[in-house]
């Protein structure tokens, strides 16, 4: 009973949010009024979105790899220093 | 493993020209979350192994698995936000349970690294972060799979049905599964590199 009530209240809470945001969810129709960047992205059947998504993945992975690379070269330097001391 | 990755990419590219435009994000956005899940399950396993025999090797493996998992999770979050902008019309919405709960899951694992940096003692850090990680990974299935399926949402997979429905074209699966395998292979390879670096670091600082 109380669980049922809780579920109802959460779904109704979600629904009020949906109502207040539903204007925003129709944003693809209002795309003509948005900036040039957004318009460019929305052209050609959203193919630029796919480009953007793959670029995001690429840059995040690249960032991580560069970080690892830096750490490895730091480690190499410390090994070299140790060898020089010995 | 490299063969798997290259196969995942090679199969993906020629078939892309046939398919509908932004549905192609399926090969990029969804495997991110699959890979994240695999990485966190690996971290979970390594954490349990660490508590079992207290060998620092397991701690290193758990840490790198969590780091790579978090990396792919962030990729999934960013790509999801970009995709949402052009299909739902907004970068972020608070009435979308899956979006917010996955952001919460990412915060749990950011907290894992903050917790790690709080200890100077190697053994203590390893033990406490292993326990935290076991609890953290346990929350992920609830945050990402169970709760979002109970709530109404625009995201596929809401209200009790799995994300793949009859809306999805069958030929998408042909490319989707190799892509998943490819990204998981890439993640495991990344983990291996970072793990080897950390083992070397431990050796040089120890001797």
Would you give an account of this structure?
The complex is a heterodimer of chains A (86) and B (207). Chain A is mostly helical. Helices cover 86% and strands 0% of the residues of chain A. Chain A has two helices and no strands. Chain A has helices at 2-25, 36-85. Chain A is rod-shaped, with a radius of gyration of 26 Å. In chain A, 9% of the residues are buried. Chain B is mostly helical. Chain B has one domain. Chain B has helices at residues 2-16, 26-53, 56-87, 97-117, 122-150, 170-206. In chain B, α2 (26-53) packs antiparallel against α3, α2 (26-53) packs across α5 and α4 (97-117) runs antiparallel to α5 (122-150). The longest helix of chain B is centred in the C-terminal third of the chain and has 37 residues, at 170-206. Chain B is globular. Classes of the chains: A mainly alpha (86), B mainly alpha (207). Chain A binds chain B through residues 7, 10-11, 14-15, 17-18, 20-21, 24-28, 30, 38, 41-42, 44-47, 49-50, 52-54, 56-57, 60-61, 64, 68, 71-72, 75, 78-79, 82, and chain B through 20-22, 24-25, 28-29, 32, 71, 74-75, 78-79, 82-83, 85-90, 93-95, 97, 150-152, 154, 190, 193-194, 197, 200-201, 204.
List SSEs of chain A in N-to-C order.
Answer: HH
Average pLDDT rating of chain B: 78
As a percent range, the share of strand residues of chain A is under 5%
- How much of the polypeptide of chain B forms β-strand, as a percent range? under 5%
Describe what is shown at a glance.
The complex is a heterodimer of chains A (86) and B (207). Chain A has 86 residues and is mainly alpha-helical. Chain A contains two helices and no strands.
Q: Which helices and strands, and how do they pair?
A:
The complex is a heterodimer of chains A (86) and B (207).
Chain A: H1 2-25, H2 36-85
Chain B: H1 2-16, H2 26-53, H3 56-87, H4 97-117, H5 122-150, H6 170-206
Helix pairs in contact in B: 1-6, 2-3, 2-5, 2-6, 3-4, 3-5, 3-6, 4-5
């Amino acid at each position: 009973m109380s669980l049922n009530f809780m579920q109802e209240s959460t779904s109704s809470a979600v629904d009020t949010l949906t109502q207040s945001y539903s204007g925003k969810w129709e944003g693809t129709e209002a795309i003509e009024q948005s900036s040039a960047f957004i318009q460019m992205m929305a052209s050609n059947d959203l193919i630029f979105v796919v480009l953007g998504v793959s670029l995001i993945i690429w840059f995040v992975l690249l960032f991580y790899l560069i970080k690892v690379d830096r750490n490895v070269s730091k480690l190499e330097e410390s090994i070299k220093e140790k060898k020089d001391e010995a | 493993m490299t063969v798997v990755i290259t196969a995942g990419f090679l199969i993906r590219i020629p078939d892309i020209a046939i398919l509908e435009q932004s549905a192609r994000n399926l090969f990029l956005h969804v495997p991110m979350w699959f890979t994240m899940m695999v990485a966190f399950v690996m971290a979970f396993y390594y954490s349990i192994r660490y508590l079992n025999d207290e060998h620092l090797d397991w701690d290193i493996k758990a840490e790198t698995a969590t780091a790579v998992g978090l990396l792919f999770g962030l990729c999934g979050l960013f790509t999801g936000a970009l995709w949402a902008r052009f299909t739902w019309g907004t970068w972020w919405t608070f009435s979308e349970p899956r979006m917010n709960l996955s952001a919460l899951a990412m915060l749990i694992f950011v907290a894992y690294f903050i917790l790690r940096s709080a200890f100077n003692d190697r053994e203590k850090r390893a033990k406490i972060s292993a326990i935290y990680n076991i609890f953290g990974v346990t929350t992920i299935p609830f945050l990402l799979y169970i709760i979002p399926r109970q709530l109404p949402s625009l995201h596929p997979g809401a209200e009790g049905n799995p994300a793949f429905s009859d809306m999805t074209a069958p030929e998408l699966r042909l490319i989707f599964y190799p892509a998943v395998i490819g990204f998981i292979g890439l993640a495991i390879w990344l983990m291996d590199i970072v793990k080897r670096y950390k083992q070397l670091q431990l050796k040089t600082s120890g001797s």
